[in-house]
C-alpha cells in the first residue's frame, strides 16, 4: 500500500468509519484507534490536537486500509521518519467521535464510497 493511497492521505478516518459500519452490520465489536498529540482528554474533546492516523480494531484485530496491522507499534509504519510524537488511544464509536474525525482529517472521499472495500476487508479478516 503506497503512502499516496487515498485511504491514507486524509481519508483514513473515512475508511475507518466505513469499516466500523461494516463491523456493526456483521455484529462485531469495533473501536476507533486514533493516533494524536492531544495533551489531555479535554484538549481532544475540543479538537485541540493533530490527528496523524485513524485505524480500527474489530473484535481485537487492529487494521486499516493495509489490512491487519501487527500491533500498535506498527500503526504508523507507513509514514516516513521522523514519526510524530503521539499517543495511540482507543475510542468507542459515536456521532461525536465521527464529527471529530471529519473535522480533523483532510478527507476528500466520504465513508459511503468505501463501503465495498470495508465489506471486503471484513470478509478477509474474518474468513
Would you mind describing this structure in some detail?
The structure is a single chain. The protein is 31% helix and 20% strand. The mean pLDDT is 91. It has a five-stranded antiparallel sheet, covered by helices on one side. By secondary structure, the protein is of the alpha+beta class. It contains four helices and five strands, in the order αβαββββαα. The protein has one domain (12-111).
Rough outline: globular
Mean pLDDT, all residues: 91
Name the strands of the widest sheet in spatial order.
Answer: 4-3-2-1-5
Helix share bin: 25-40%
List keywords for this structure.
alpha+beta; globular; 4 helices; 127 residues; 20% strand
